[in-house]
Amino acid sequence: IPVHNASCWLDECLQGIEDQDYTGSMELSVYDDASTDGSRAIVEGWRERLERRGVSMVISGHDSAQPRGVGHAKNQAVSQSSGKYLCFQDADDVMMPQRIHLQYETCLFNSTSLIGCQVRRDPEGSTERYTRWINNISQDQLSTQVYTSHGPTVIMPTWFCSRDWFQRVGTFDEGGKGVPEDLLWFYQSVGQGGGVVRVDQCLLVYRYHQQAATHSVLEETIWNLRVAFLQERVINQWESFTIWNAGKQGRKLYRCLSSSNQKKVRAFCDVDENKINKGFYTYEESKERPKPQIPVLHYRDASPPYIICVKLDMTGGVFEENLKSLHLEEGVDYYHFN
């Protein structure tokens, strides 16, 4: 557990650890990243209870003027720990009693995978679309939907993996505030052939609040990382493809591609008659003469593979039905980017 000014959440968080029904040996490794609200004393206050429960504790930290960031705190918590398996927990979340034993059992059969779980959002109803996505995408989509704006397909506060796999992938980025250290590590793991598996039970209460570190990461930072990963893993291997969405998001993706990948875009496709009737999109910022003009087609007249830049779960099922009508295979004929 990385901790920074989490005093109001810690008792519930630590109670969740005491309540685990896992019967093997457990260790709690906490790194306090310059808290000024007495967080460390709260954790220390739990030592006796947790050790009585058979959970050994390692606590360290620093009290410099500035926190060093979530990546640093997680790395320190991992390096001072000794377990063969790592269960990541945020100080503001609460694990359900079955979490460790169910993820541990799953990890035994998936030693080079990142194991996640389903979550319950608190307060209920916050980030509804995101929560539905976390809990309901299929096991196959955990690997194919890694490029969307939602980030890792199993969310960081639910991560469980073997120490061997963590060490093979490497430590978290320590760039500090504004760095999406979880997304970077997730991409590293997937890039090295790591699997992604979800235990299909709700094993974590996942809190939403304004102080969460995730709010400090700029959307543009994440966009650039996603575009780079999509090109490296998918588009560089394709000879040509279609961008599904001739609107703002589709055009932005096109402009952000390398020039060699821009040349692979055979068309945009859409359902908007105005865009289709216009006939093409002109890349005005291009230094080429004449400026590239990319055809805009109706989605039924376009051909796969597609990079889809349409937001999921936003059109009352209309977009999803259109896609389904084409009988395509996700991860082969198309990838979601939004």
UniProtKB/TrEMBL annotation:
Pfam family, one: Glycos_transf_2
InterPro entries linked to this entry: Glyco_trans_2-like, Nucleotide-diphossugar_trans
Protein name, entry field: Glycosyltransferase 2-like domain-containing protein
GO MF, one example: hexosyltransferase activity
Residue ranges of domain Glycosyltransferase 2-like in the record: 1-169
